[in-house]
Amino acid sequence: MAFLGLPVFGRHERAGFLLYGSVVKAARDPFYFSTLGVADTLDGRFDLVGLFAAVLIRRLRLLPKPGAALAQAVFDAMFADMDINLRELGVGDMVIGKRVRVMWEAFHGRAVAYEAPLAAGDAAALAAALARNVWRGAAPDGAAARLSALTLRQDAHLAGIGLDRLARGEVDFLAAPDGAA
Questions:
Q1: Within a 10 A sphere around the Cβ of 81, how many other Cβ atoms?
Q2: What is the number of other CB atoms lying within 10 angstroms of the CB of residue 102?
Q3: What tens digit of pLDDT does each residue of 54-92 get?
Q4: Distance between the two ends of the chain, CA-based, in angstroms?
Q5: How far is the C-alpha of 176 from the C-alpha of 102, rounded, in Å?
Q6: Which residues, including other chains, have CB under 8 Å from residue 90's CB and lie 6 or more apart?
């Protein structure tokens, strides 16, 4: 949206971009690629960013107002970033919309697949969903279980972060050092 040619920012847009920046930083931890064997490719990076975003968005949606609006702001920041990244990779304007839609659908499907296991604290079901999505069914031995355990810890950690901090765009994810799970 624009007013007099200048962008009009939503009330929670700044916080959404700050929160999303923390998602990207956490998802780029070398541990996931070097130790867990996530492919260091566009798809692999998207899957990890999507996982961290899904866990954060889940937390935000469970909060009272403005939790849902913050969740939407994180989602919007994520897909604005995806659009920019695709353009930087040389994807033409004619196909950007289709590519972003495919990515949106992939993210949504993954978020749905992770929701029930996260809510139930079901490490095995979450590991199965992660193996299907992050490694396309070919996870290195034990990697999906380790990522599941880390994700459940992230979810519990985020549950302890108050709405006031999140509304300011402040979130910290647990570090995933080598051998963390």
A1: 16
A2: 11
A3: 999 999 999 999 999 999 999 999 999 888 888 888 877
A4: 44
A5: 29
A6: none
| Ramachandran quadrant class, 38 (left: phi over 0; alpha: psi -120 to 50; beta: rest) | beta
- Taking residue 33's Cβ as centre, other Cβ atoms within 10 Å add up to 16
Reported as a single tens digit per residue, the pLDDT across 16-46 is 999 999 999 999 999 999 999 999 999 999 9
Please, how many CA atoms are within 13 Å of residue 168, restricted to the half-sphere of its CB?
7
The total of other beta-carbon atoms located within 10 Å of residue 84's CB is 11
φ, ψ of residue 5 to 5 degrees: the values are: 80, 0
